[in-house]
Amino acid sequence: MAAETFDAIVIGAGQAGPALAARCSKEGLRTAIIERHHFGGTCVNVGCVPTKTLIASARAVRMANRGADFGFDAGPVRVDMARVKARKDAIVLQGRQGVEAWMRGLKGAEVIVGDARFTAPSTITVQGRSLTAPRIFLNVGGRALRPDLDGIDSVPVLDNASVMELSTVPEHLVIVGGSYIGLEFAQMMRRLGAQVTVVERSARLLPREDEDVADAVRAVLEAEGVRFELGAECMSLAPHGAGIAVGAVCADGAPAVIGSHVLLAVGRRPNTDGLGLEQAGIRTDGRGYIEVDDQCRTSADGVWAVGDCNGRGAFTHTAWNDHEIVAANLFDHDPRRISDRIPCYALFIDPALGRIGMNEAEARAAMKAGRKILQGKMPMTRVGRAREAGETRGFMKVLVDAGTQRILGAAILGLNGDEVVHSLLQVMAADRPFTSLSRAMAIHPTVSELLPTLLQQLKPMEDQRLTG
Questions:
Q1: Half-sphere exposure of 202 (CA within 13 A, CB side)
Q2: Is the pLDDT score of 31 beyond 80?
Q3: Using CA atoms, how far apart are residues 183 and 181, in angstroms rounded to an integer?
Q4: What is the mean pLDDT of residues 380-409?
């Protein structure tokens, strides 16, 4: 069949794809936008939007149950999970429909619903049509990884998407995986009324985080009744009456964790299978992620990969930044690069963890190479706003280069930590010394007002101790 010619083709309407389509439209390019399922991608449909909506409901339940701490009694709290889910569904639908309406309203753009596949370099087939363009943007996202666990096919299991379709609270949710997704669901479901046990293969939670951060996160969740089985070296699944037995250790006869539901939260995989990438000369790594250079270009001329599928970030904000990098290079003569960005992310438990830049393990490695590093660390009990709100769990800590006076990294686990950490991130992005923040006058009473105090008490990293 003869190929229809476009100026640009966008495959996937997640976070980066729609923004690139909009920019192509603004530049007067005839653009095809291909989406096989829901507009908005992971974030809008099964990621940030629905999870944070459910987390908000769970926090409201938690606060109602803490009435005595604030001098009132709200009485017994009854969770209607069907209504909680309905609220989540309505917010998701609004976001999804908004993205689709945006795409269908772009000048010079055509929306095509269907599965796209490369048949040759610069050539795509979809819905019986053949399309070609000198610019093709892949924004196909990822999905939950299904691990190779003994017995996994013998029992029903949930992933990050299907667990949010439950209309009743699980009696006992067993979560396999003690990282970011698993821990957010652990606290959320515990607050909604489920018994929750987290089973993790590693000896501790969040292995990429500093040990004190991981330990503090565990303490927060244990205080709310979440149980942990760590060092689970021989995980397995099996039917157990009406429930599911989750084995955690290798020894014969070792007791299993018995749950009513099991959530698998052990990682993600890219949606690159079935795209025919080999037909276009697009290389992938051993896990299926599309290999890209520092400006999101693939190994095929005129093809870019953005968002989760390129393996250079697993967040909505990294996908959006990918779009900005591509647009800047293509249309603005601005050579932005992936390597320019400062790593940043959050764990959206309550209190939240905000993380930016270097961690302590990386700092120690730099110190062995001769770099002098300062550290500041203070507990959230020092924050008046946190005491007033009854939210004193956690701490703040920051790493600074002693020579350049530049902030290298920070972790804030505490009230509004995911927001407060941006003050430090912005100083890093502006490439300003820490003194530009430590000498600033902060508003009282706020959480952020502790940052200047924290930075005024920097010490050599090896001498730093948490002070009350």
A1: 12
A2: yes
A3: 6
A4: 97
Please indicate, yes or no, whether residues 331 and 355 belong to a single structural domain of this protein. Answer: no
Q: Look up residue 73 and give its DSSP letter.
A: -
Looking at the fold, whether 81 and 139 belong to one and the same domain comes out as: yes
pTM surpassing 0.85?
yes
| 401 plus 332 within the same structural domain | no
Strand pairing report for 261-264 and 172-176: parallel
Total domain count, the chain: 3
- Distance between CA atoms of 180 and 266, rounded to whole angstroms? 10
Q: Give the strand pairing for 236-240 and 243-247.
A: antiparallel
Residue after which a domain boundary falls, among 317, 340, 363: 340
Residues of the domain holding 71? 4-144+269-340
Question: Which segment of 71-75, 139-143, 344-348, 398-402 scores lowest on mean pLDDT?
Answer: 71-75
Pairing label, strands 353-357, 407-413: antiparallel
Dig out the tokens for 20 from the structure.
Answer: 């690139």
How far apart are alpha carbons 376 and 11 in whole angstroms?
A: 45
Contact residues for 121 (Cβ-Cβ < 8 A; gap 6+): 279, 280, 281, 300, 301
Domain-located, residue 78: yes
- The pLDDT tens digits of the residues spanning 96-114 come to 999 999 999 999 999 999 9
Side-chain-facing half-sphere of 94: CA atoms under 13 Å: 9
- HSE-up (13 A, CA, CB side) for residue 411: 20
For 55, other C-beta atoms within 10 Å of its C-beta total: 19
Q: Provide CB contacts within 8 A for 404, sequence distance 6+.
A: 433
- Residues with Cβ within 8 Å of residue 251, at least 6 apart in sequence: none
How deeply is 412 buried, as exposed, middle or buried, from its count of CB atoms within 10 A (0-12, 13-18, 19+)?
buried
pLDDT 10s digits, 233-249:
889 999 999 999 999 88
Does residue 160 form part of some domain? yes
Closest residue by Cα to residue 58 from 237, 198, 183: 183
